[in-house]
Please model this.
Amino acid sequence: MLLEVKNISKSFGKVKAVDNVSFSVEEGDSVGLVGESGSGKTTLARILLGLLKPDLGDLQFLGRDRSLTYPYNISKIAQIVFQDPQNSLNPRMKIGEALEEPIKIHKTNAKVAELLELVGLPKDYANRYPNALSGGERQRVGIARALAVEPKFLILDEPVSALDLKTQVQILNLLKDLKSKLNLTYLFIAHDLSVIKYLCNRILVMYKGRIIESGPAELVFSSPAQDYTKRLLASVL
Amino acid sequence: MQKSKFGAIVLLVFVILAIAAPIIAPYDPSEIIEEEIQGPSLKHWFGTDDLGRDLFSRTLYGARISLTVGIVAVTIAILIGTLLGALSGYYGGLLDALIMRFVDIMLAFPSIFLILTIQVMLTPSIYNVMIVIGLTSWMGVARLVRGEFLTLRERQYVEAARAIGCSDFRIIFRHILPNAQAPIIVAATLGMAGAILTESALSFLGLGVQPPTASWGNMLMDSQAYLMDAPWMAIIPGILILVTVLSLYFVGEGIREITKS
Model:
């Protein structure tokens, strides 16, 4: 068991952003987290990363909890790729510096040049600033930065929804390659179900802060149990 | 844009002249070499003062003092203001409230009286002038930096840095501060203009740079008694202060325009 989430809740004022959520992720899984915007997906992701403290509940990576409750320690295991590549890179930091940072903090053996190669970017991009890169290239840098920590678990928060269709396909293929190459576990957050179908073997459906349906991807797609999931599927297909 | 180029060139020339003062100055600035109060001539470009010192030499050396006071005072103000503003904006909450109330208290004092009081209590020296001006002019910077941090800390790259495991220290200095530098530079140029004016005012009142050391401010003070007989004694340092301050404003405005677009 890579990750076990038990009864996590988080409210902002009166709004229950995450409401008693439990699920688990096995090593090697690729879990799709689906739901419309405002359903609490991103809040849940931030809790998993240790960026946000849950009001209630428990969260365990690799069966240990206490030693991993600090954000610093979680960051060694779980990383995130953000939705918007325009804003997720510091405009004043060269690509090389941005990749060097996690390597230094976590003292990993990763090399900037190798990371760039891994995500399909030329080595000399290390000397460029983010504004000299296209959206797809920036997203590759975002992926490389997350991988620099050598994490086991990667949260992909709508990683392709800000990109054009051709770039979406390229990034998805890259993610698929990286998963098998580096033996990663994914939590793929999306509202676009076709993307999930392409990449995920398990699905969680989130609605108003709760997980209302979960199961193997084929099952959820072929015979959804909840009306909400049916509507979600119908709206796309 | 034209104005800011003009300002930048003027400042550059002044700085070069100030640095090169020992080479350029025809006389020792404190040496009494001639009869007192002579008008500008080929021998004494800016004339001589009431004690018979060469005013061109004094102006060059005065530029060193005035510009140094401006730079050092502003550096102190920027350092304090940036640090407190950054802490305030980044952490928010109680710390923010405390720092901002402190800023309010400091701003509530009319700064020129505060400076005068402190200067009267201390022995007047150039260093005290720099420090006192710096310690009483950081509040605007603190507010500005706090505002920048309030917006920048919500940026996604800050959250990304946090997810990577960056410390608060690193996020503040490596991720947020570099993105807030443009308005800080603008504040620094405008602040330097203010510091030079304050130094002039202090020296004019006899509480700043002490004779025989020349600064543009105390040259103005020396000229008071001779306004009718020797107007050049007042006009020359007066114009230099005016031109320097205006140039700094122009440069500051120019940087603000460039970084806006």
